[in-house]
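input
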Amino acid sequence: MTLESDVLAAFPAEVHIPAQLVADAIAASSAEAPRILVVLDDDPTGTQSVSDLAVLTRWEVADFAWAFAYIRENQTKPAVYVLTNTRSLDPAEAAARNEEIVRNALAAAAGSAGPRLQLGFVSRSDSTLRGHYPLEPDVIAATVAAETGETTHGVVIVPAFPDAGRVTIGGVHYMRGTGEEAGKLTPVAETEFAKDASFGFANSEMAKYVEEKSQGRFPASEVIVLDLNTIRAGASAQDPAISAKAIADALEPASNSTPIVADIVTENDLRALALGLEEAERRGKKLLYRVGPPFVRGRIGQEIRTALTSEEAYAGNTPSTSGGLIVVGSHVGVTTRQLTALTAAHSSARIIEIDVEKLLVPQADGYIATVVSDVVEALHQGDVIVHTSRLLIKTDDATASLKIARTVSAAVVNVVNRTLKTFPPRFVIAKGGITSSDVAAHGLEIRHAIVRGPMLPGIVSLWEPVDGPAKGIPYIVFAGNVGDDQSLAQVTRKLSTTF
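output
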């Protein structure tokens, strides 16, 4: 570990940049042809940094047409999220899904009413560097080229998520410490996330991470690094235009999907980067983005939304009098600690454990039916916490590990869906990326939703389903790797009538 203050001492102070300055720059450059960012989110937790944007769990041309119309009619910020769930897929499936989504988005844009739409593409992934990289941006770039003839000059890689304690300084990606470790930084490759069964990695220095994951196709020496000296070039004069020019100048050599990594510590850094990217694109650079959650907020010039209140969570809907359903599938350490804290504090909640070993045998259907019956009965009395057993079953084979994870997730989805159609809960919280994705798309059968905002400052998003059997039921997307030990209890308390 090292002290954050020591690492930052070598760099300039941040440049103060209002979100409106970014929004104005975007409006000026897209006056004739509106530009919409299509965010391919490899699990739904990417929405936790934004508010009042459309979310799709299906990606037919008609779904994109709905989203583009929603943006136009409601004059929202120009972005739509598409829930790909590719982190739960093998590489071939992930590639095929990315390609299909990009093709359909481009087709919908070409057929949309009104002014010609421009699309930008964002590959949203994990702030702790897990996921299909470089496969996903490669596929997006190839599909855009095949459909439009447009070559991608650079892929901008911004995993930072300061709200959740992930920052990039001097080209190195870190996790901030909490509690007694506050103020200290741990290189992300030294954390539990780097040991992920499917997406593990060895390097915290982003240029070396790119070389590692691309198996040498992109040598570290050829990666463009936008460190804080460049991001904050206008610090002495507090002039964002100086930083924007410095960033755009640094991107001039980018060609043929050159990887570009960026230092980010604060929201102002994200906005400075956004202005620089806007300037680079104005000069003709074609860019794709591989990013953590808050990048899109900065890139579209959206203000930071304050955490939703209990009243705001149910605004416009009549909440059910039944209990709420909290579903926990993630196995990372912070999730287990949050689950322990919730069960200790919420003494009136019924706790139902799904035994993972019983899901991996031929008689699993009967076991699932018993779990559903227990959940429905308990919801009549109050909140229900459903979690998978904490023993993580995995193998040394990444594909086999994914298959186990998908079997478990399918069972959880089955429980949620059958519960919803028997006795709808007051609210649903899903803890874990793959878990929350599958619960949204299949458990609650959400096709279109609006992300209303965060339940805690900067993290944990609330979706309002606008169609399907869960319409009007607040759905909380809670990443496995965010928050402190009390965060799950805090979110539940906001929504519950019995906590």
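quick obs: The chain has a mean pLDDT of 93.
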